[in-house]
Design goal:
Elements (H helix, E strand, L loop, with lengths): L8 E7 L3 H17 L2 E10 L16 E3 L10 E4 L5 H10 L5 E5 L11 E3 L23 H15 L6 E6 L10 H18 L2 E6 L5 H11 L4 E3 L8 H7 L2 E5 L3 H8 L5 E4 L6 H12 L3 E3 L14 H18 L1
Helix pairs in contact: 1-9, 3-6, 4-5
Length: 327
Amino acid sequence: MTGAPSPLLTIWAVSDGRVGIEAQVLGLAEAVARQRSSEITVKRIGWKWGLGRLPWRLIPPAALSADSPVTSPWPDIWIGAGRASLPLSIRVRRWSGGKTFVVQTQDPRGAVAAFDLVVPPAHDGLAGENILPIVGAPNRMNPEGFSRDLARFGPRIEALPRPRVAMIVGGKSKVHDLPPERARAMAGEVAKAVREAGGSLLLSFTRRTPAAAQAILTAGLADLPGWIWDGQGENPYFAFLAAADQILVTGDSTNLATDAATTGMPVHVLAMPGGGQKFQRFHEDLARRGVSRPFAGRLDDWRYPPLDETNRAAGELLRRFDARKTL
């Protein structure tokens, strides 16, 4: 006789809906679902009257604005990310009567004890019984997604000369910028390297890329064989990474670099004005692991074991979830 099938785990992926933040909660939720049958619900939240800028203790739950109810029945697992989620993530274990296993990615800014598991970037330096530091941030990269998008976009990519160089450009943040003069120099450096290698370019921008920098890079790289995605139609991001023999990422984003590191292909980091100690520690860690090198104007080749931190975090999440149920 076969036993009854295991019930589906219910998982809520909670964020303010920004692409980079939502990718973290969805990536970790999807990794859990690959290891155990689960039903994932995305919750995009905000706070009325600008209250989201206040410390979480001062934000009343009644001020919540959400795309779907944030109330019982509570999920088995809650995965939150970002400042906007904290007033809920910190309270949901109490609201659910201890039923919900509460996970927070990123640094929850001192409220660590409120969570069953915190999954911060290792370069933040957090440590503790319920903390699992990982390299970079959880992401949605996986072999199935790579294969799916390669099949979808393959006809436009397969004929391009090799090496195919994926270039993923970030932009302005609290500590980085991409001014026109740097964008102009970057375009020249990349164009020279791709031409010398006889390859092609797969270029994608993020929402943080300044319009002036995007225009300069597009104009400066348009003569190369390849594909410059203009943001219209389906996003070929997974396909660009999956098809790449070489990857260039700007140094302003841990997400971009850790996404690229899941491929096992060389990751060249494009310098940008700004930075800080946390970014320096992150990039030094990737370099020690053989993942990345600062872009030196040429497309050197090397290999490394693909980074698999999201699946590692999902496995540890499930181990702790199961252990808690047996207590």
